[in-house]
Write a structure and sequence with these properties.
It is a single chain. Helices cover 56% and strands 1% of the residues. It is mainly alpha-helical. InterPro entries: Fatty_acid_hydroxylase (IPR006694), Sterol_desaturase/TMEM195 (IPR051689).
């Protein structure tokens, strides 16, 4: 079994994330080049800044939250594991890769089916584009909230270094599948997760809704009846559109909506139940007092409003500053005092909010939302 000091170093994957970031940006640049060569409008500046901004804020928050959650995993594994496995044995890695992928399927599925869990996952689906920058659009609290679902692995005796490495691999694997530039991949469709399978997952078309939850393996979707093949043009986003470029507010907007509905419910039981009922459920009296129009795909309008080119330049500059502050935090996290960590995190947060303000148009200003052709892009489960 690893020592405590060794475990803590294995748990700290911030340096790995920081090292992978240039690779992510290089692949985004490659996808953008390919899209332009094919004359496919795959990227919009404001959307990409907001999506990557979500990723920046997520890893900033996780400096304070994720490490503690994974340390809990390590504590349970060391003190209460029913079995013990050797991290030097390749069979250990294969077994726990499969088990983690199985639990990830259920964590992901429940995050689409339960109001509270949708709140931590919905930021990933808010973009009305679908490209590699969307992969970086993560929920800042998702992994922390999901940790209880993975704790059975600790009880089974999964070495903590195996857990954090396999979980990180799963995240990195899912980066490449967020693209429209790759068609169906022969031989592995329906077995491994692919761009085609994940496009269907992100789509709001009725035939695609709540499908293809697998992280790496798609066998779980086939076993539990949630597999679907990509057969028609996909529509991306969420059914209650998030028309904002603010990557910080993106993390709280769904919770704010549920909180507002809970506060208006007459029955105390509904005020509690709404958090754990199926995503989109609202108390009957709230529906009656504040009805919402049903989602109609043909009525979808693509949000692209900004404040103009000069403000976009300012937004890019602010994003770069946020990225620099975030990089300092990630690469120096083990040597910084708590005060400096909080100061850097606050700097990242305020800079991202300022970036969003530079992009977000004032009322009745900027480009208007554009109709989406036939089946292109909007929003999910928030009905």
């Amino acid at each position: 079994m690893s020592s405590s000091g060794e475990n803590e170093s294995m748990l700290d994957n911030n340096a790995l994330v920081a090292a992978a970031t240039p690779v992510f940006f290089a692949l985004i640049a490659l996808e953008l080049w390919v899209a332009r060569r094919r004359r496919v409008p795959a990227y919009a500046l404001a959307d990409s800044l907001a999506s990557i901004g979500c990723g920046v804020w997520t890893v900033t928050v996780e400096v304070f939250t994720k490490a503690a959650a994974v340390l809990l995993f390590a504590f349970i594994e060391q003190r209460y594991a029913l079995l013990h496995f050797d991290a030097g044995n390749w069979l250990t890695w294969v077994m726990f890769f499969v088990l983690l992928d199985f639990l990830y399927y259920w964590a992901h599925r429940w995050s689409h089916e339960i109001n509270f869990l949708w709140g931590v996952h919905s930021p990933h689906h808010q973009s009305e584009e679908y490209n590699l920058s969307t992969a970086l659009r993560q929920g800042a609290f998702q992994d922390t909230v999901h940790m209880p679902i993975f704790l059975p692995l600790a009880l089974l005796g999964c070495p903590v270094e195996v857990f954090i490495t396999v979980l990180t691999f799963s995240k990195f694997y899912q980066f490449w599948i967020h693209t429209r530039m790759i068609a169906k991949v022969p031989l592995i469709e329906g077995i491994l997760n692919t761009p085609s399978a994940h496009r269907a997952h992100h789509a709001v078309n009725d035939i695609y809704l709540d499908r293809n939850y697998g992280a790496t393996l798609m066998i779980w979707d086939r076993l539990f009846g949630t597999w679907v093949d990509e057969t028609e043009p996909c529509v991306y986003g969420v059914r209650k559109p998030f028309h904002s470029w603010n990557p910080v507010w993106a993390q709280f907007s769904w919770f704010a909506d549920v909180w507002r509905d809970a506060g208006r419910a007459r029955r105390p039981v509904d005020r509690l139940a709404i958090w754990w009922r199926r995503t989109g459920w609202r108390p009957a009296d709230v529906v009656q007092s504040d009805p919402q129009a049903p989602f109609v795909l043909a009525d979808v309008k693509h949000f692209s409003a900004t404040r103009g080119r000069k403000w976009a330049v300012a937004a890019v500059a602010l994003f770069v500053l946020a990225a620099i502050l975030n990089n300092i935090l990630l690469t120096q996290v083990s040597t910084l005092s708590l005060t400096l960590k909080i100061a850097l995190a606050a700097g990242v947060t305020l800079t991202l909010v300022a970036m969003a303000a530079a992009l977000q148009p004032r009322a009745k200003q900027g480009k208007q939302a554009q109709p989406v052709p036939a089946a292109i892009s909007t929003s999910r489960r928030e009905t």
